[in-house]
Amino acid sequence: MDQFIPEPFENIDNHLAVDGFDIVKLSEKEGTPLLVTSGKRIAENYRRIWKAFSSRYEKVEIKYALKANPNPSVVKTLTDLGCGADVSSPFEIMLAEKLSLKPERILYSPNNSSREDLLAGSRKNVTVNFDDLDQMKLIEDELPERISFRINVDIQRGEFPGTTTSGPGAKFGISVESALEGYISARELGVRKFGIHVMTGSNILDPAHFGNVASRILQSAEYISGNSGIAFDFIDIGGGFGVPYRPGESALDVELAAENVAREMKGYVSHGKIGKPSLFLEPGRYLVADSSVMVGKVTGVKKAGKTFVGTDIGMNIFLRPALYGAYHNVIVANDLIRPVSGKKDIVGQICENTDCLARDRTFPYAVPGDTVAVFNSGAYINSMGSMYNGRGRPKEIMVSESGYSITRNRDTFQDFISNYTFE
Ligand code: LLP
What we know:
By secondary structure, the protein is an alpha/beta fold. The chain has 12 helices and 20 strands. About 30% of the residues lie in helices and about 25% in strands. Ligand LLP binds near residues 203 and 283. Ligand LLP binds next to helix 10.
């Protein structure tokens, strides 16, 4: 069996490459671990989902969920194309602003926030999406022009229990009845523009799901409009658009997902109760996951009952397998035709037994000095990294037609100790 190389990556002279760049050579020059990102792929992903939705519904806004990958070059690639931002904290607001995004293009969905956290959005007139009525009360004297509530609908669907963000066990959102109360008090407090929001879970490949989510949130909107006379500026169906992680898995049919959502939107708008809202989407993973590979080196191969392939990609910089049991395709990038043979654990350098990128994975033989690449490293990898065990986070580079640029420097010892006082 051959090693599986997903798009947009390719084979150039038996080395892994992207957009014409030999990734093995890049990593020899820049060192490992190295996160290599294709700006072209991010743009393609954005254009694909934008076209699918905007060709079916007239008012669509895409807000990139910065939490997936806040590297400024990644965010800028998207905002240059017209994409807005979904942010979850004051720092993310500041980052969006630093990249010149106007407040009206930012949607702020924090949870369990302090008054200061919330004011960081409302004082800039960023739309605040409240997770609870009490959260709105915290800033009732300084509400922004437009607000929304996050509704907890009865759809529980995410790839893992840890990435399911709605339903009875989830900490997010409120019931539609509480939200009705919230919208009425917001109006009494002078707010005149409203949205409504839902986010049920992450990494979903079934296009029918997105129609179901739209239908549930539109039902909620209609209930609120019917009982309050409030019309909606936007309906936000959140993110969750999935990407294939396993060899052979099919991509999300985004055209069909858009078709399902647009049908629901048009249906509810035609009832005449909810107004003529824009449709907001908040994809994170879909836009960035497959644009990047994490590139590392094999440090050693140990046979101790099992075969352990040691690498410099530890759980501090690649947490998803340890945290969720997530699958990521790993290959030997300097010899793409090396056949896979026998099961191995591919592990990192962290002093934890959960520091395992891939367990019992059918993998080629490997030798120290081999280059490994892990796919789908563009989403929830750099943003979830740490310096645990005193291991720094990687250098990041972005390749483009004109060459490549370093978009993040490797952490140094100084970064590791920078906020300690040594007193
Ligand atoms: N909007 C809101 C309010 C969210 O909470 C999230 C993600 C998104 C949008 C973007 O979701 P996406 O399109 O990326 O599925 N760390 C996990 C994923 C957690 C997602 C949390 N919320 C992982 O590594 O799979």
